[in-house]
Design brief:
By secondary structure, this protein is α+β, with helices and mostly antiparallel strands. The protein contains nine helices and twelve strands. The chain is globular, with a radius of gyration of 19 Å. The mean pLDDT is 90. It binds adenosine-3',5'-cyclic-monophosphate.
């Protein structure tokens, strides 16, 4: 048994309920694959579906490409997350594309092994349903905001989503609680997540910086005033 793979599998939320014996079984089913940054792992519309992927290290973005070639980012996923489950479950082509944002190590589980695993383990089936419900809730929020909100409300909503997904709460030197989003998306990625252009995101984020709601460094976004973002995201 490959202990390093068992270690990686233990970091995957979906398998957190499995005991050592079940983990050992799973270990025999996965194949580790290394990807460099910006590599496409899954292509929207592909119907030669083979595997589900677990992220052992690095991060990926899930996106769709419009008829005009513009990309809409649906989500960023990182260590411990999984993707590629939808087409394995419903037998339809891939619903979206997935590409690496950093170098990444992925663990692939072949379709048949994965389906067998779900049938055998109610814990895994529940974990999967729980994560899929979470994604659907987030997608519903995004649909709601796209149809009802102003563009500044959508950008604020994107920042709040990022904060919820991967924000880290810290105390500043002055003793204030703030939230930091490390390895922040680029302005273009924020635009692709908010259904707008890079120029508009740049204008809105400068405004949020000036009002003291956020700060942006080369690598991070610091959120000082969540209330202000909430207000923008709900009132538009
Ligand atoms: P699948 O359709 O097999 O291939 C693309 C994958 O992207 C899909 O499975 C999901 O794992 C993932 N995906 C699709 N839509 C979303 C979304 N809205 N949020 C997060 N992940 C998604």
């Amino acid at each position: 048994m490959d202990e390093s793979i068992v270690g990686l599998l233990k970091g995957v939320e979906l398998f957190s309920e499995l005991n050592e014996e079940q983990l050992a079984m799973l270990c025999d089913l996965v194949v580790a694959q290394n990807f460099t940054r910006d590599e496409t792992v899954v292509l929207e519309g592909d119907d030669s579906v083979q595997a589900l992927y677990l992220i052992a290290s690095g991060s990926v973005q899930v996106y769709m490409t419009g008829a005009d070639g513009r990309e809409t980012i649906l989500s960023f996923l990182e260590r411990g997350d999984f993707f590629g489950e939808m087409s394995l479950i419903d037998g339809e082509p891939r619903s979206a594309s997935v590409r690496t944002v950093t170098d990444a190590k992925l663990l692939a589980i072949h379709r048949e092994s994965f389906l067998k695993l779900i049938r055998q383990s109610p814990e895994i089936a529940m974990g999967l349903l729980s994560e899929m419900s979470k994604r659907l809730r987030k997608a519903n929020r995004q649909i709601g905001s796209l149809s009802t909100m102003s563009v500044s409300g959508r950008v604020a909503g994107t920042l709040l989503n990022l904060m919820e997904e991967r924000g880290v709460r810290i105390h500043t030197d002055g003793g204030k609680m703030v939230t930091v989003i490390h390895n922040r998306p680029t302005q273009q990625q924020l635009a692709d997540m908010s259904g707008t252009t890079r120029e508009t995101v740049s204008r809105i984020s400068s405004l949020l910086v000036r009002t003291g709601a956020i700060a942006m460094t080369g690598k991070d976004i610091v959120i000082f005033d969540e209330g202000m973002l909430q207000e923008k995201a709900t009132k538009g």
